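Lab meeting, action items carried over

1. Structure of the two-component assembly. Owner: GW. Status: complete.
Input record:
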Amino acid sequence: MTAIATAWHRLTARLAALGTTALIYLALAGVLVLGGAAVAIDGADKGANLFATANLVDMLTRTSLTGFLAIGMTLVILCRSLDLSVGYTAALSSLVAATTMDGRPENIPVAIGAVLLVSGLIGAANGAIVAFLRVNPFIATLGTGLIIKGYLDTEYKGPAGDVPELFQQFGYTRIGFIPVSALVMLALAGAAVWFLRSTRTGHHMYAVGGDAEVARMSGIRTDRVLIAAHVLCAMCAGVAGLLLAARFGTGSAEAYTNLYELDAIAAVVLGGTLLLGGRGGVAGTVAGVAILAVLDTVFNVMQIDPFAKDVLRGAVIIAAVALYARRQLDRTAARPRFAAAEGKSR
Amino acid sequence: MTAPPVLDARGIDKAFLGVPVLSSVDLRIEQGEVHALVGENGAGKSTLMKILAGVHTADAGTIELGGRAVSFTHPLQAQRAGVATVFQEFNLLPELTVAENVHLGREPRRRGRIDRRAMAAATADLLADLGVDDLAPAAKVGSLSVAHQQITEIAKALSQGADLICMDEPTAALADAEVALLYRLVERLREKGVAVLYVSHRLREIFDLCDRITVLKDGRLVQCVDTADITPDDLVTAMVGRRIEAAFPERLPGTETGDVRLKVTGGGNARIDGVDLEVRAGEIVGLAGLQGSGRTEIAEAVFGIRPFTRGTVAVDGDVRRITSPRKAIKAGLALVTEDRKAEGLALNQSVRANARMVLDANAHLRSRRRLDRIPQILSGLDLVSRGDDQEVRYLSGGNQQKVVVAKWLAAEPGVIVLDEPTRGIDVGAKHRLYTQIRALAAEGLAVLLIASELIEVIGLADRIVVLHEGRIAGELPGGATEQEVMAYATGRRSTEDPA
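Predicted assembly:
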């Protein structure tokens, strides 16, 4: 009995010592194991297996769209901002892509350029409104999102444009069981990790989100950093829009009804990035995205009804964030005031 | 004429909304000099420092740095010109490492990428140069002690190439042992030829450290003297413009030590253990100990912020389970926290709203009679404000503290815990606050007083309970010597030892 207790203590102590990102990957592994077991037990008679190729493909396909949005969202959230307009930006981008391509493969580069330009401009507008007009980012991006929605609703009653076969492959081609879109997403994630770690602008995002005033007093041009984050976030949404266009074969204004932005925010927060900014990173976000994708696939395979599915998802997100909040509390409790005593015990 | 002074400010005027805060002030600091700037709260010290830091711009006057005339409109300009300021609220990011904070905004790069190795090496060099060997460049600032955070600030200032470092109350949050470290650091800066402007209320530090002293009063320059040419008494006189009588008021006549109002038996939680404590009506019990010894933790446990998980607490003889501040208030306790800006006051609300806050939040306390007493309590504390609807953030530190005390007195508590009640308050206001603490005791309140300045605990408390590493190391009568208290506080002596 005591042996179990000591082992448990040792385990929890070891977990506490792990970094947040490591913990999230551990959680992802846990979700995979539990999900695999649930699927196996639930579908024992049918020989169901979560790790069958079809299910793996489903999982990985799910990661790419939310992934693109969540990578960008991580940047703005690190800066203590937020972007609620990414779903609308992605929908608009799918239309820009499909109408520019107009069925002709030679137009693909122009279309990609156009999408990045349009989404980048939306991001610049978001960033400028937040940085210069000092509008709360929640309201500012809700506003730009609504403006885009209004434009989409009046201009596009149905699907528009035509995506050539060649570009549709971005949506469907796989290497083994790994979809190309997921690979592109992972490459973008890698680039974002590098950007945050090795460039001044990326590094300064942590400073701006940690304390904008301290950052400003240290000579950081906080406005530029904030705008850069918003531009990059919106461009990620543009890439998500390209993926939407590739999957649908056409541009779809309806895409915004899926509320992708909320999935993205959930993934970022699940990934351990602080909503208040200044702490976290893209590596965690990728795990957050994966956790959501695994859950969705598990629910799908088990044929859980859609309403129960949303309830479960909601519960998982709240439970995860509540856990982080506990960790957070423990850490703040161990901060400056008590630091002298703490220093000794280390 | 040798090298020009590091700083030569002449005829500085500054007014806020037409109210003059500084008039025609001169300040001259030589290279490698440690220069004290003293004066009561409201004398204009902070304003002068903020002008040097580029936070405010002077209305009139000239500032020369190393012989070159400058004029700052933004803090960055001051930084680039070689003036660094270490404010009381540190300009550090807790989530970043020491090295990252030191180089924030000026990260070294190699081929366009941040060169973390160079950053760590440069920070290690800086720290070694300062004679600091127990601070790792890779440590997260949020996990550091206040003293180490301060070192990080100073290292940051040096890495910016500062010739003049302004320090605002640098020891306000330091324990005695850490103050010694700061002394060494200031000495090191002096050796390196970096000038220091040292703003402090603590006379001892000024006489220990500083070469010259500039005294301000009511926004005017009173005098600038060599430390060797003035006595502490004369300095205080110069600051307040009158002689202050004995530092600590006597116990008021008619104060009777009555029944036990607060009794903690075997109290403990994750940070403190074996706390046995008694405070009687009319008694002031002082809690002494080094930073991190558990002083504040006891206050927070008694008040239910981080409750005791072991032992019992009895208020006026009834055992109470105090697991939240709300329950503590119900039991008749009050806590004046050490951080009045974060925990004691709603800064953007009025004096009236703040003073009513405890009554408003606790229905069982709210009554016409208590609400009507508030103006009387405020005037009893000699609050100086432009009226009850003035926002408290515009009050001086001393007056803010009076509002905090008033809001608790309005609840008519039986036990009041005062955690660092005089932090950041000037000499005159301190003295008045001491008198008021005595008066509270005379009215039959049980007072538990926490102060990191030993002399305060010794001068005010009837009994002194000394803590060491979360436990009670010993108890001494009021008026004990600093040596006696320190013997317990540093663990050199404990009650288990034969006396």
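2. GW to write a short summary for the group page. Key points so far: The interface with chain B takes residues 197-200, 203-204, 206-207, 210-211, 213-215, 217-220, 278-279, 331, 333-344 of chain A (CB under 8 Å). Residues 306-333 of chain A form the longest helix (28 residues).
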